[in-house]
Amino acid sequence: MAEHAFAQTDNSGVNEESLRMVSATPIGNEPVSDEELRPHVLDGFIGQPRLKAQLQLFLDAARKREVPPDHILLAGPPGLGKTTLAMIVANELAVPIRVTSGPAIQHAGDLASILSSLDAGEVLFIDEIHRLPRAAEELLYIAMEDFRVDVMVGKGPGATSIPLTLPRFTVIGATTREGMLPSPLRARFGFTAHLDFYPKEELEKLIERSAAVLGINLAEGSAVQLAMRSRGTPRIANRLLRRVRDWAIVHNLSAVQPDDVCEALALYQIDTEGLDRLDIAVLNAIVCHFNGGPVGLNNLSAMVGEESETVETVCEPYLVREGFLIRTPKGRVATAKAWEHLGLKPQDDVSKLF
Ligand code: ADP
Questions:
Q1: Would you say 310 is a known binding-site residue?
Q2: Cα separation, 189 vs 124, whole angstroms
Q3: Any domain includes 18
Q4: Ligand 1: does its nearest atom lie under 6 Å from the Cβ of 310?
Q5: Rounded to an integer, what distance in angstroms lies between the CA atom of residue 69 and that of residue 50?
Q6: Same domain for 151 and 227?
Q7: 37 annotated ligand-binding residue
Q8: Do 150 and 229 belong together in one domain?
Q9: Taking a C-beta distance cutoff of 8 angstroms, is the pair 314, 278 a contact?
Q10: pLDDT tens-digit profile of 156-199?
């Protein structure tokens, strides 16, 4: 990794999460291409064993009782399978699913019209539920608890509200920011599932499954190379796999060898730990220009030529999670792991800095 040290910090074009190959949120036409890779039954959903066991029990009980299950909240970072699980629940229950999202609902009336057209047993999936407008949220409380929606008829002082009884249905809410959900809304979910980042072995299985669906022949050891670079996130794993497929097509490969994966992804400047050009620029700046830190966010952002918000929200969470960076009251500090990753010997014991 020594070539990273003192590398020129060229950030042209890397200023948006949405432009990054290692972004956990969808880029390009991924919402469409993700569809072909979604498992349709719980058995096909890879990893998250505890969550799967809980959900299986929950669905089996609802099926035996012959009633729609309680409302379900799926919480966790983007790209870990929340939408996929919502689709699986509807499929396992053999009921239709209506899909919407917090930002798509601008007025309480938008939600009222969706709710009043739901069929008995239907699943209503609300992605980014923490972004619902307040008035819609309040309408949802009543609908979830009492299966009732108050429809406003007329305008101004003469307007009246007519209560409309709804058939029983199941709301599945997905959120990347569970803490932003007001507690009355959170309390209306009978089952809350937290999705965690996937360990490498699970990602490896997921990549092998996706490769089979896409008709890519991965030689032994190739899935491991992909899993190492996928930042614990299925969406990233599937994206990297598609880029490796491009490589295989262009090079007329009948089987993708581990070296092909390394070469293809090196072309996109993604290294063995899944760090990209921006991550490396940040580590490089702390280590080489600030002697390992501590360095304040503003200085660091100026050095890499990025908005401080981008560095803080796009880059740092993964660097902190993987132990490359520590946030201290005095600023950001590179860990021994960061120095070593850049091919350098740590100069300071970082614990002295606290
Ligand atoms: P989220 O809604 O949490 O952002 P998605 O459910 O859209 O994530 O998943 C992103 C992609 O990753 C989809 O293509 C999906 O098929 C795949 N995926 C996510 N989790 C799993 C899993 N556990 N097993 C198989 N594929 C998965």
A1: no
A2: 13
A3: no
A4: no
A5: 19
A6: no
A7: yes
A8: no
A9: yes
A10: 888 888 899 999 999 999 999 999 999 999 999 999 999 999 99
312: tokens are 């803080």
Catalytic residue among 235, 239, 245, 277: 235
209 annotated among ligand-binding-site residues: no
pTM given for the model? 0.89
Give the CATH number of the domain where residue 71 resides: 3.40.50.300
Which ligand 1 atom is the nearest neighbour of the CA of 127? 2
H or E segment and range at residue 146: helix 134-146
User: Residue 318: CB within 6 Å of ligand 1?
Assistant: no
Of 151, 167, 194, the residue at which a domain comes to its end is: 194
228 shares its domain with 155: no
Mark whether 188 and 209 lie in a shared domain: no
DSSP 329: T
CATH number of the structural domain spanning residue 307:
1.10.10.10
Residue 192 designated active-site: no
Domain edge (last residue) among 151, 177, 194: 194
Ligand 1 atom, smallest distance to 202 CA: 23
Q: Is 52 in the pocket of ligand 1 (CB under 6 A)?
A: no
One domain, residues 188 and 60:
yes
Give how many domains the chain has, as a whole number. 3
Structural domain of 330? 277-353
Which sign, positive or negative, has the C-alpha torsion 113, 119, 121, 124?
A: negative
Mutate which of 80, 127, 176, 203 for ligand 1? The one with the most ligand atoms within 8 Å of its CB, which is: 80
Closest residue to atom 6 of ligand 1, CA basis: 81
327 is in an annotated binding site: yes
Residue 163 lies in a domain: yes
Burial class (CB in 10 A: 0-12, 13-18, 19+), 243: middle
Residues 282-302 as b or e (16 or more Cβ within 10 Å = b): bbbbbbbebebbbbeeebbbe
pLDDT in tens, 66-94: 999 999 999 999 999 999 999 999 999 99
